[in-house]
Amino acid sequence: MKRNEYDIMYDILNSIVSKPLCGKTYIIYQCNLNFKVIKRYFGKMLEKGLLTVNNLRKYDITAKGLDYMRQYRDLVAVLEV
User: Fold this and answer.
1) Crossing angle of helices 5-18 and 24-31, rounded to 10°
2) Tens of pLDDT along 1-32?
3) pTM of the model
């Protein structure tokens, strides 16, 4: 089954939760994506405030990102019933 945009964003955030302040390469391998795709998603997610990046190019999840994950899990649980 093909993942949609929201699934991919959840996977990215989930990989960051499992290893805070991780690099882009770690996330790419964890989410089975490529650099071209991840660049597009990082742009959206940084713009929406779901994650942050420091000057060492390490990514971390924000409170808004954690809220997104919680709401995503709740929605999936409702739809799987």
Assistant:
1) 120
2) 789 999 999 999 999 999 989 999 999 999 99
3) 0.91
